[in-house]
Specification:
322 residues; single chain; 12 strands; globular; alpha/beta
Amino acid sequence: MNIRRLIPTAAVAGASALGLLALSACSASDGAGRDNGKLKVTASFYPMQFLAEQIGGDHVEVSNLTKPGVEPHDLELSPRQTGALGESGAIVYLKGLQPAVDEAIKQSGVKNVADAAAMTSMEEHGSEVGGHHHTTGDNHAHSKSEAEAGDDPHIWLDPVKYAQVAKGVNKTLAKADPDHKADYQKNTDALVKKLDGLNTAFENGLKNRASDTFITTHAAFGYLAERYGLTEEAISGIDPESEPSANRIKALHTLAGKHHVSTVFFETLANPATAKSLAGDLHLKTDVLDPLEGITDKTRGRDYFEVMQSNLAALQKALGSK
């Protein structure tokens, strides 16, 4: 961008010294997108931060736009965050999850941008997702209007899809910092191997189960359900803040008994009131199934793998796995 086009000639002449100082400082900090010799990477929220840190290792300095405890869907960026985005050497995000981030990235001018949504297949999911679809009489729990269907961004909860995204992030970091390409590849290979192991743990851990169906606060676990032959029944749709209709609650009452549901799962970042109320009405247990949108002191685990192992244990217990 030609900065002078945006400033009247007189103003440029009157502030030339200040302008030169500002431009010099800017080029020193963001010319190569580096900070203390490390590639400056901006991640949109925790799952993207985790990939950047695991793949980048000691060669990157990663900042997260979404602070711990903040619901990513609702993120609003401060002017300072928006301005700092343009100083990144690379950006890792998931298009469609956070509109404010999508718009800021468009305006940032950063060349090396990894969009996780472009690195694996995305699907439209509603409040019922899985290979074992249910209907409950005249209440169609998975009808599009009732389900508040939409593009499902929660690809990181499927270890196979997350591994595909990791490979794409590797390419972006290598392009932004070719001197460390070999290290990025080595780190990616190690991460993908761990994700393959996690996939195997879910496959084996959920093989012998008494039920296929679980109820969650919002439709975050559709890809996971499809991967392992389960059925997710969400109280709300893709949006964790949306309110369920009376028909949806009635349908959940019916299918909970029919499909031997034992547990209603709630989340650490979203309001658990509706989930706990439904569980109370149905005399069911409650437990946490974490959509891993952020790590806090309430999270059952310190990183992605620990929380996913906690999720697996919770599902095994709820589904009667042996």
